[in-house]
Amino acid sequence: MLSLPSKAKVSGSQERRRPVFWDIGIAPVMWPALGFFLVFAIWEVVVRFSKLPEFILPSPIVVLEMVYEQRALLWEHSLVTLGEILVGFFLSIVVGFPIAVIIAFSRTLERMLYPLLVVSQAVPKVAVAPLFLIWFGFGQTLNALLALLVAVFPVIINSALGLTEINPDLVRLGRVMGGNSWRIFWKIRFQTALPSIFAGLKLSITLATIGAVVGELVAGQSGLGYLSQFAASQLQTIRTFACIAVLSFWGVVLFYCVVFIERLAIQWKPRATS
User: Fold this and answer.
1) Where are the domains of the chain?
2) Which of 112, 164, 179, 197 falls between 20 and 30 A from 24, CA-CA?
3) Which residue in 110, 142, 108, 163 sits closest to 219, CA to CA?
4) Domain 77-265 adopts which CATH fold?
């Protein structure tokens, strides 16, 4: 008679096969770093073999040198852009999550609001920016509101999806155990919806970056988007690439900040293993 290995033995075997560096957290940093290294290596090879002039396509080494030389200027404009992104992102949470709750608990309001949300996303933000310029004038308020307009949609859609796609047996169990509507929402619906909510937040922080830069390109007086456009108008290609590189860096940092908060908030979610 064949006997299956016990759960403890299987688990121990899997633990022995798992690389040590995965447990200490090096792998999550190593693989993205390797990806960036490969992109930069291919970029450098293309520039060297094609012998393109720097005003068309500078090498990544030259761009990084420009970032270091202009670090004070880039830092000053980075603070402006980061402020606009974070304000737009937090406003998308404040505005988007209550709308998601309304949509999740009211079928009538869902049918009423969904077409309006789709229209708000279908209209190009570059077309809306001049109207915002008339209403709010130049400055960071315009850029933050454009970031809000772009970033709020995934917050609403993903949060509403997470709040509605729940096992009804859990809700019935909560009622049997004497839970009121608020406790059922907070302890069951909200906790179960957290993975979907954070999926929307990760999309939102990325789109907020795009919205803020669009505002700076249209009517900005400072920020990385404005600095990039100004450099391009002066045919300063290296400085333009430097602005794009710094903006990309901050986009990655903000994204992984949301990922870090997600891991702190969702302790029960199983993590992928090797």
Assistant:
1) 77-265
2) 197
3) 142
4) MetI-like fold (1.10.3720)
Say yes or no to pLDDT of 191 above 90. Answer: no
The residue ranges of DSSP E strands in 136-223, in sequence order, are none
Nearest to 43 by CA among 60, 62, 67, 23: 60
Write down the number of H helices and E strands in the chain: 13, 0
Q: Provide the 3-class DSSP secondary structure of residue 36.
A: helix
Residues in the chain: 274
CA distances from 101 to 29, 165, 195, 247, 258 (A): 36, 13, 16, 33, 21
Instruction: State how far the Cα of 219 lies from the Cα of 139, in Å rounded to an integer.
Output: 8
Are 234 and 219 in contact by the 8 Å Cβ rule? The answer is: no
Closest CA to 100 of 205, 206, 173, 199: 199
Whether pTM exceeds 0.85: no
